[in-house]
Design a protein that fits this description.
By secondary structure, this protein is of the alpha+beta class. Helix content is about 25%, strand content about 20%. The protein has 19 helices and 36 strands. An eight-stranded antiparallel β-sheet has the order 6-7-8-9-17-13-12-11. A hairpin with a 3-residue loop joins strand 8 and strand 9.
């Protein structure tokens, strides 16, 4: 499919507009091209360690409605794993690709049998409301999921709007249909702290579930409406039935809705809200006023078709099409809407904001997504970027700092860094309307100057002592990236003092470089190196690194590759060390985090700190080596199978890497506004831009063996650089790569053709003396 092809939706509209033959004959149409949603397989990444959400949603929707398994460990963090074959029911919220389990709120389970609050067990689902299923009778599509529940012979189907989950259950003949509502189910860390339900009409149940876990105080409210009246409603708490009409029934954790015997098909609509039951009821009325399940399904799939249609990707290989569009789909599961249809939402301080002046979002997995997912959003979902930014700024006002890892009105403080900063700064520097640069700078500075999570040591000593905090190297190196971003914003708005202060902090990563071993190492409070030292060792959350070892963290300087090149002794030694990374023994990882997966030597594609590394060759004038490694990763670390991701999806980051890299681009510096060239995996791609502009990328003579860029042109003119600016992309135009089987080592080799910036002076010796520098006062606010 190329930019001049009619999509399935476009072709359908074209045919409807054609006049009929006067004699009444209908025109004969060519076979429509596949819809882009036809390439999406939500089961990709549901096996292995991908942890992706499986079920029905719309792009960035609040509802992710899908099957929920009994929790069996880490690989069930999303609530579903492809290896499983027992579903408890269908829950309305899920996480996609995280390494910690939570959510799976409001489980709906259709079943046949006695009225009971028992869900059964993984080993023996009957006589509970859980059921076995098989993948042979399972359908997973963008916006729709269906499965046969084998134990009770029930056909289950779900779809979704932004804030409403739709259910359609078809029961066998002659039975009494029952549907359980389970508010007590725990997925991993989540545990219910308050559950309430009440039948407010003969066809409606409303209630709430508060829980604690990864999100310490998570609150969700719901309003459920049925297409059929209830014959009876039974409420249970801790397995005991509440007397009919008793006030105690409102404290129920399980409800069983029974229907008239012989009813075959039951539809449910479940609105959810972060505010209250009235908000959930309002969402139902606004988004699902009727009872046409098929229409809701079509609308969900049309929403995905529009979202995916922003990028037209053609490779000639159906498997690559599936991987690409599934990756683009996965990149649009999170962040999620976190407000009601009328704009109300609950803030981190638990106060309700009425009719907010922005569209509010949550689930910001920023340690992961600042690297490629959010840069991808600036191209593929630019209309949402200002509200992502305003949501983060609102969180800053509600909790006193920018989000770290924000989960539905809860700050989890998971992972290291304060990576709302690069996302916000990137939005400002790329010129998005509605993102106030001064407000961003003040929020970023206030966050960076807090006395928490090692920042007090950064201000006092210029490094975080390894004998004071675990993960000291990871903390400081991620902070340096964020401080670089603050410096760039300060420079943009003319704050010279702020620029100089945070620029200096951005170079503090150099204090961790040990010239003797050639690695970034932890330093003790007295300035000495932390010992013993083994660059292969990674003790999860117990040593100097975070989900990695010294081999990976050596390269975590995406904001200053020139400085790292200098530390490593120049371009040739830098490139040689990169070569070494990919050839080391990949089995030397005793005690390593499960997140470390997808090894090529000691390169770890399954975890985010490695994601920019292959692109660093271009900074040393060896773009062809970047091409070779990128093509290897595209081919070996992604597939269209259930285990088609080599590591956690992490709310879109793993997939965003693929989407950008398959088009031949990757943003190394998160706020540099440059995309470094790799090795495109397509024949052509088109990015549909605001204002009707289009940016085309063509890879001529691309093939499995033709992985090297021979030359390039931009808008018809020779282009010798190994990168392209964001401004050139959003202006529209055409980038053409000529591909070939052998490296053109001159492409991008000249100093003026490399990505990055002019080399800045680095006082390496002074920074590595181990002496604690005098504490500096923070820049004054203006």
């Amino acid at each position: 499919m190329n930019g001049y092809s009619l999509t399935a939706l476009g072709l359908a509209g074209f045919l409807l507009a054609m006049p009929c033959d006067p004699a009444g004959a209908q025109p004969v149409a060519e076979t429509a091209a596949p819809s882009l949603t036809d390439y999406v397989d939500p089961l990709i990444g549901s096996g292995g360690h991908g942890h992706v959400f499986v079920g029905a949603s719309v792009p960035f929707g609040a509802v992710q409605l899908g099957p929920t398994n009994f929790y069996q460990g880490w690989d069930w963090c999303s609530g579903y794993h492809y290896s499983d074959d027992v579903a408890i029911g269908f829950s309305h919220t899920h996480l996609s690709g995280t390494g910690i389990g939570d959510l799976c709120d409001i489980v709906i389970a259709p079943y046949v049998g006695a009225v009971s609050p028992e869900r059964g067990t993984r080993e023996q689902p009957e006589p509970g409301y859980a059921s076995r299923y098989t993948h042979d009778q399972e359908t997973a599509e963008a916006g729709y999921y269906a499965v046969k529940l084998l134990d009770d012979d029930i056909q289950a189907e779900v779809t979704a709007t932004e804030r409403v989950g739709w259910h359609r259950y078809t029961f066998p003949e002659g039975v009494t249909p029952r549907i359980a509502i389970d508010l007590e189910f725990e997925n991993g860390s989540g545990r219910a702290t308050l559950t309430e339900m009440a039948a407010v009409a003969s066809d409606r149940v409303e209630g709430r579930r508060f829980s604690t876990g990864w999100a310490k105080d998570q609150r969700v409210f719901f309003s459920l409406q049925s297409s059929e009246p209830f014959a009876s409603t039974d409420f249970f708490l801790k397995g005991e039935q509440a007397p009919a009409g008793a006030e105690g029934a409102k404290k129920a954790d399980v409800a069983v809705l029974s229907f008239a015997k012989g009813v075959r098909t039951i539809l449910l609509k479940v609105g959810i809200s972060p505010v209250d039951e009235a908000g959930a009821r309002g969402n139902l009325a606004a988004e699902a006023p009727g009872w046409d399940f098929q229409s809701a399904r079509r609308e969900a799939q049309a929403a995905w078709e529009r979202a995916l249609g922003v990028i037209r990707f053609q490779s000639g290989d159906a498997a690559k099409q599936r991987v690409f569009y599934t990756a683009l789909y996965h990149s649009m599961i999170a962040p999620v809407l976190f407000n009601d249809h009328n704009g109300d939402y609950r803030g981190t301080d638990k106060k309700v904001r009425r009719s907010a002046d922005h569209v509010n979002y949550s689930i910001f997995s920023l340690w992961d997504t600042y690297r490629a997912a959010h840069p991808l959003h600036t191209l593929a979902a630019p209309e949402r970027v200002p509200d992502f930014a305003r949501s983060m700024l609102a969180i800053n006002e509600e909790q006193g700092k920018l989000p770290v890892w924000h989960l539905l009105a809860n700050e989890t403080n998971t992972m290291v860094g304060y990576h709302a900063v690069p996302v916000l700064v990137d939005a400002v520097l790329k010129g998005f309307d509605g993102v106030d640069a001064e407000r961003v700078l003040e929020a970023a500075k206030a966050t960076a100057m807090r006395d928490e999570r090692g920042l007090d040591y950064i201000k006092q000593r210029g490094y975080i002592p390894a004998d004071a905090m675990h993960e000291s190297v990871a903390l400081a190196m991620e902070y340096a990236i964020d401080d670089w971003c603050i410096a760039q914003l300060a420079q943009r708005v003319g704050r010279t003092d702020d620029h100089e202060y945070f620029l200096k902090r951005s170079r503090l990563y150099q204090r961790y470089f040990d010239p003797e071993t050639g690695f970034m190492r932890g330093r003790r409070a007295d300035g000495s190196w932390n010992t013993p030292f083994d660059p292969f060792v990674s003790q999860h959350r117990k040593d100097d690194y975070c989900e990695g070892n010294a081999w990976q963290y050596l390269w975590l300087v995406p904001h200053d590759p020139e400085g790292l090149i200098s530390l490593l002794g120049g371009e040739e030694k830098f490139a040689a060390r990169l070569d070494d990374l990919f050839t080391q023994d990949s089995t030397k990882n005793d005690g390593a985090s499960l997140d470390m997966s997808g090894f090529i030597g000691q390169y770890v594609h399954g975890n985010e700190p490695s994601h920019h590394i292959t692109y660093l060759y271009a900074f040393a004038g060896q773009q062809w080596k970047t091409a070779a490694r990128v093509r290897q990763i595209l081919s070996e670390m992604y597939s269209d199978r259930p285990d088609g991701l080599c590591g956690n999806e992490d709310c879109g980051q793993m997939s965003a890497w693929y989407v950008l890299s398959a088009m031949g681009l990757y943003p190394v510096d998160p706020v540099g506004g440059l995309y470094v060239f790799g090795s495109p995996a397509m024949s052509n791609a088109e990015i549909q831009l605001p204002g009707g502009r289009v940016f085309r990328i063509t890879a001529k003579d691309n093939a499995k063996q033709n992985l090297f860029i021979q030359s390039a042109s931009l808008n018809g003119r020779p282009y010798t650089k190994s990168y392209i600016a964001h401004a050139d992309i959003v202006a529209g135009g055409e980038l053409v790569f000529e591909m070939g089987p052998r490296p053109n080592k001159q492409f991008g080799a000249a100093a003026e053709d490399r990505p990055g910036k002019p080399a800045a002076p680095h006082s390496v010796t002074a920074l590595n003396t181990g002496a604690a520098p005098k504490r500096e006062a923070p820049p004054t606010s203006r």
